[in-house]
Amino acid sequence: MGDPEQEAFGSVGILSLKFEHAVIAIGTDLQYAYRKGCRRREVMIVTTSKPEHVATAFANAWNRHDMDEFASLFVSDANFVNVAGVWWKNRSEIEAAHRATHETMFRNSRLEGDVSSVVDLAPGLASVHYIWTLTGASAPDGSPAGDRKGILLLIAQEGQSGWRIKVAQNTDIVPGAIAPAGSKS
Hints:
Elements: H1 4-9, E1 14-18, E2 21-26, E3 29-34, H2 53-64, H3 67-72, E4 74-81, E5 87-88, H4 91-102, E6 110-122, E7 125-135, E8 148-159, E9 162-172
Parallel strand pairs: 4-9
Antiparallel strand pairs: 1-2, 2-3, 4-5, 6-7, 7-8, 8-9
């Protein structure tokens, strides 16, 4: 019989090993490995092998409310405009804002969705549209906020450690809103 850790993770390989922690990733499934005697997990970095995987990894980190993992999806100089038009201009700002909201209004939230398009913009650069539904969020007064739907646009950039988010734009879908018809010539 082989190494029990290898058997538990199958053919998944270790991407980085530092001190007592190992991070393992394959596609969009982030796995955590523990060395014997290690009592806590620590995410060093999430690795995504395709641009569309960043959207799924975004939702996975959101649903675990793991803002360290969430932040690791962004390049250091990333930009993010949220549904209210607030513009964060680097990974630290993105992490701080999401950490604060996941301690309050998004504490019990769940983000589900699907990648609806991936467009190659240039070598190592792609746009990803993720259609989402958010449940379990709270209003500022603590009451249930109700379900929301939206579209997340990510511009993903390929680097040495896989694909990362360079730009994010999040938009709520407003029920009943209809774009005006184009004029006819």
